[in-house]
Amino acid sequence: MSESFQRIYLSDELSSVAIEQKQAIDFYLNETLFPDEQEHFTSRINELRKVEFLGVRRLRTKLNLQSAIKYLESGKPFLCDQLDTFISISHSKNYCALGTSLKEIGIDIEEINPRIGRIASRFVHDDERRFIGEQTLLDLTKLWTMKEAMFKLNKRSGIEFKSELVIEEKSGDIYYGKMLTELSWEQVTIDCFQVGELVVSACRYS
């Protein structure tokens, strides 16, 4: 990406994804943390995880979200109820991302890597092969990020990516699919697009 920080608004105009390149940990020394976040941060030993933790809080500050980022037992992040804002978090090798919406949202970012071709059989359903064109690695990465975004939106555990997260239709950068939730199959809408070297997907219930 040409700039370190970008905020991309999605097709519903109620949601966005903020992205920023990761920095060395010293870059974040003055980052503001809420007290319970400070406790969570000091318990993290891995420097990479600390960078990701601080990078997302930096995005939170840039978006002026006045709330600690907390986690459910499932690992899903959330803000205080007063903000009426849903969030989702993603990291790639070089970037951090924070999705925000007035509705529940799941996001994923990935940098294109040839490894995606070696694992495609694990997540691509036969009916989804029509979404794979000449740019095979890009299209496979799009399918992977869309399913990761669906997974993060879904509250159900033990999800099978290949058969229970399904992409059905496409219109430009907007995809439509369904996923098996705790109650039933639910329809979803996914924005999926490329920003520089990143593929970005954001999923909401239709």
End-to-end distance: 30 Å
Instruction: Assign the CATH architecture of the largest domain.
Output: Alpha-Beta Complex
Estimate percent helicity. 25-40%
CATH fold-level topology of the largest domain: Ribosomal Protein L22, Chain A
* Helix count, DSSP H or I runs of 4 or more residues: 6
CATH superfamily of the largest domain: 4'-phosphopantetheinyl transferase domain
* Largest sheet strand order: 7-11-10-9-8
Using the CA coordinates, give the radius of gyration.
17 Å
Q: What amount of the residues lies in strands?
A: 25-35%
Helix and strand content put the structural class at alpha+beta
Uncertain stretches: none
The total count of strands amounts to: 11
CATH C-level name of the largest domain: Alpha Beta
* Overall number of structural domains: 2
Gross morphology: globular
Summarize the helix and strand pattern as letters: EEHHEEEEEHHHHEEEE
Biggest β-sheet strands, sense, barrel: 5 strands, antiparallel
Average pLDDT number: 95
Characterization of this structure:
With 206 residues, this protein is an alpha+beta fold. Helices cover 26% and strands 33% of the residues. The strands form three sheets. It has a five-stranded antiparallel sheet with strand order 7-11-10-9-8. Strands 1-2-6-5 form a four-stranded antiparallel sheet, covered by helices on one side. A two-stranded antiparallel sheet has the order 3-4. Strand 10 and strand 11 (198-205) form a beta hairpin. The chain is globular and about 50 Å long. The model has no long low-confidence stretch (mean pLDDT 95).
